[in-house]
Design brief:
two-stranded parallel ribbon; Rossmann fold; globular; alpha/beta; NAD(P)-binding protein; NAD(P)-bd_dom_sf; oxidoreductase; single chain; 40% helix
C-alpha cells in the first residue's frame, strides 16, 4: 500500500489542522504528492509535514467561494495534471449567543457554507475534470479499477441526531447524501466515493467548541457551555470513554484511498470508539 500511494497525487481540503494535517502527514510519509487547500497556514502546535513526499500549499483559500475553489483547482491541474484523489476534511461548527434550540440564521449559513457547500465545490471541481478527460465505461460494463477516489469527512452527526446541534447535524447529513449519490453517478468513470464519520475527536475544531475555547482567526466562533456539555455527554457514551485522535481518523482515510478498499464505495465508516452504533 505504501508504494502504491507513493505514485498518487491527492488534494486535501483543511490540510493545515487536525485530521487534515494528520492525513497530509501520512500521505507524504508514503511518498505521495499532496495539495493542501486551506484558509489558514499550519495550525499552532502541529508538527511540520514530512519531507518524503511532494507538498503544494494553496493558502489562503476560502472554500465557501466557488470562484476561489475553481481558481485553485485550475492551478492544481496546471502543476499536476494527474490527480487521483480528493479528501474533504475542511469543516466548522460555528455558534453564537442566539441559543442552541433555535440557532441563528448566521450560524445556519456559515455551517452549511463550510461543511456542505465547501465540500460540494471542491468535489465538483474534481469531478468536472474527470468528465472532461475520461470516457465512462459502457452501460452495465464491470468497473475493475479505481481511477479516482473521493473521501469525505462527515461526522457521527451524519448518522444520528445530536441534541442542540440541529444545523451542524443537518449539514453533515447533506454531505452523506452527496457522497452516496456520487458513488452511484460516477462509478462508470472509475470513481469511488466514501465517507469517514468521526466521533468526538481531539482536534482544534473540537477544542474551540468547549466553554473556554476560542478561534483567534474567527472571533465570532467561540465555545459555549451548552455545546461543551453536549460534547462531553457524547464522549461519555463512547465505550472506550475517550476522544479519538486525529491520526486514528487519518488511518481510515488512507484505507479508503488505497486498493485495500477496492470494492467499497458509497459507504460510511464510523470511527467513533463504538458510539453511536447504527444499523
Amino acid at each position: 500500500m505504501t508504494e502504491w500511494l507513493g505514485t498518487k497525487t491527492i488534494v486535501v481540503t483543511g490540510g493545515s489542522s487536525g485530521m487534515g494535517h494528520s492525513i497530509v502527514s501520512k500521505l507524504l510519509a508514503h511518498g505521495a504528492t499532496v495539495h493542501i487547500i486551506d484558509i489558514q497556514p499550519l495550525a499552532k502546535n502541529h508538527a511540520n509535514y514530512p519531507t518524503s513526499g511532494k507538498l503544494y500549499k494553496h493558502i489562503p483559500v476560502d472554500i465557501t467561494s466557488r470562484e476561489k475553489v475553481a481558481a485553485t483547482f485550475k492551478n492544481i491541474y496546471e502543476l499536476t495534471p494527474d490527480v487521483y484523489g480528493l479528501v474533504n476534511t475542511a469543516g466548522a461548527a460555528p455558534c453564537d449567543d442566539a441559543g442552541r434550540l433555535i440557532e441563528s440564521d448566521s450560524v445556519y449559513e456559515k455551517t452549511f457554507a463550510i461543511n456542505t457547500a465547501g465540500c460540494y465545490y471542491a468535489t465538483t471541481e474534481f469531478l468536472a475534470r474527470i468528465r472532461e478527460n475520461v470516457q465512462p465505461e459502457a452501460e452495465n460494463a464491470p468497473v475493475q479499477e479505481t481511477k479516482f477516489n473521493i473521501v469525505t469527512f462527515g461526522s457521527s452527526a451524519a448518522l444520528v441526531g445530536f441534541p442542540q446541534c440541529a444545523v451542524y447535524t443537518a449539514a453533515k447529513h447533506a454531505v452523506l447524501g452527496l457522497t452516496r449519490t456520487w458513488a452511484f453517478d460516477w462509478a462508470a468513470y472509475g470513481v469511488r466515493a466514501n465517507m469517514v464519520a468521526p466521533g468526538a475527536t481531539n482536534t482544534p475544531l473540537a477544542q474551540v467548541q468547549m466553554p473556554d475555547g476560542k478561534d483567534d482567526k474567527n472571533p465570532d466562533v467561540y465555545g459555549d457551555q451548552t455545546r461543551g456539555d453536549v460534547m462531553d455527554w457524547a464522549r461519555l457514551q463512547v465505550p472506550l470513554k475517550r476522544w479519538g485522535e486525529a491520526s486514528e481518523l487519518a488511518d481510515a482515510a488512507i484505507f479508503f484511498l488505497s486498493e485495500k478498499s477496492s470494492y467499497i464505495t458509497g459507504q460510511v465508516l464510523a470511527v467513533n470508539g463504538g458510539w453511536p452504533q447504527t444499523g
